[in-house]
Every structure is written in C-alpha cells, then in structure tokens.
Amino acid sequence: MTVTTSAPVAAATARPAARPSDRIRAWATRAPLLPALVFMIAVTQLPFVATLVISFFDWNALYPKARRFTGIDNYRQVLTDADLRQSVWVTVLLTVAVVLASLIIGLGLALLLDRKFPGRGAVRTLLIAPFLVVPTAAALLWKHVLYNPEYGLFNGLLHYVGGPQPDWISNTPLLAVEASLVWQWTPFMMLILLAGLQSRDQQQIEAARVDGASDWQIFRHLTLPHLRRYLELGALLGSIYIVQNFDAVFTLTSGGLGTANLPYTVYQTFYQAHENGLASAAGVLVVIGSIIIATFALRVVSSLFREEVSRG
Fold first, then answer.
1. Rounded to whole angstroms, how far apart are CA atoms 135 and 97?
2. Distance between CA 91 and CA 181 in Å, rounded?
3. How far is CA 71 from the centre of its chain?
4. CB–CB of 246/264 below 8 Å?
5. Residue among 272, 246, 282, 264 nearest 54 (CA)
6. pLDDT of 304 above 80
7. Could you give the CA distance from residue 253 to residue 45 in angstroms, rounded to a whole number?
8. What residues have CB less than 8 Å from 78, skipping those under 6 apart?
C-alpha cells in the first residue's frame, strides 16, 4: 500500500517543479515576436486611437484654440451631409463594379490558363504584370498613354478606323476610373481562381466525362461549386482594397466629375478644408467598413484551410 500511495504523491510533488520551466520555454518562443507586436501596435493602433479621439471634436486646423468636444456630431454630419453621402455611394458603386468585372474577367483568364498550350508560362507572366505595377504609375499610364484625347492609344486606334475622338475622362469619368482598377485587379482575381481550379479533384472530372457530361455541365455542376469559396475570397479581398482606393481617383480625375469616393473626401476634408474632426470621423467609418469586410474574408480563408485539411 505504501508503494501505491507514494507514486501519486511523488508525481504531484514533481508537477509544480515542471511548471516554471514550461512557462520560461513558452516565453522564450514568444519573445522574438514581441518587438514586431510592439511595432505593429505603435504604427497601427495608436494612430487609430488618436484618430478616434479627434473624431469626437470640432477641430479646425486653422483655429486650433477653438476646438471643442462635440460627441457624435461629426459622425452625424458624415452620414447626413449630401456631399459625403454622395462619396459613400460612389465608393459602393466603384467597389461593386470593379470587383464584379475583375472576378468575371479573372475567371475567364483562369479557365484559359488552366489548359495546356504552348507559351502558357509567358502568357501567365504577362497577365500577372498589371498587378505588379505601382497603383499611381498604373493610373498615370491610363491617363496619359491610353485616355489622352490628343495622343492616347484609344483615340489613335479610333482615328485609324475613322472613328470619333472622345475625351474619355471628361465624358465617362467614373467608368474611366473603374477600367483602370479592373485592369490592375483582374490578375489578382485570376491567380486566386487559378489556384482553385488546380485544386479540383481530377478523378471526379474524368468520371463525369466518362458518364457523358459536357464541358458546360462539368463547369456548372462541378467547377463552379468548387470555386465558390475562392470567388468569395477574391471578392472580399478586392473589396477591402477598392473601398480604400485613393490613387486612381486622385490621379485620373482629382475627385472631380462625380468620382470623389470616401477616401478622397477624407483627404479633401483634412488637407483642403482643414476639418480634422470631420475627416477623422469619415476615416473611422472607412476603417470600420474595412474591418467588417476583412472579418468575412478571414472566415472564408479559415474555411478553405479546414477544407484542405479534411481532404488531406
């Protein structure tokens, strides 16, 4: 009996001695990450907290001594002001149009690159190239090389066939911004959807072909349901960027002709009107919208990981 009772007592006395070493080992593995964590908090969270505080003040940079606490009045003004509401509507319209067009074109290109043909690697590299261009440089490219009414490529082609010579930015300003963003973001959608296509179960597709299924039936009943998660991921990640897009609007139209989205309105309110409180409130709303979209994106990514693990 003494032998059986002494073993649990010895094990119980040995456990507390092992706990400090476990804690030290855990902190030793986490310690290298602490500088990065501190840097991230200092760079991202502290400025956001400062912006959140400023958003509750009536604060004009030209009259710093006249600032006063106004509560949620700035948010109320953002949501009720006609110009700000228009910028919110432009942001939604721009995001929906660019994401949908990029997904549709990207899906077509992904289906093309999923097939084997000579020069596929070179074609893939060329199609990815627009996504690697700096956003401001891409907007300048479209503004001066393609859209310019005097020497732009579009009007040069129309002149060659005897067509009209429109001023693309003046006549269709929002469409001009959307086209430049679609050109830049289609490769991103293409890569995500191409990864989804290459993760399909080839045995299932071959079995469907043996049973007499056509290419359209395979795409509709097998490929498209498999790509649903990838389509959702592309749409969410694209929306996060397009909601915050500033470069294309600023470079192509300078926010004129009804193309001012919410990020450009924040810039205009802060740097031209010097209304720090109002601009901060609009910026906080942009961040909140981005966080909501990012939350859905993370859920989609986690579900994709779970599916891959279950397959493995």
1. 18
2. 13
3. 31
4. yes
5. 282
6. no
7. 32
8. 84, 278, 281, 282, 285
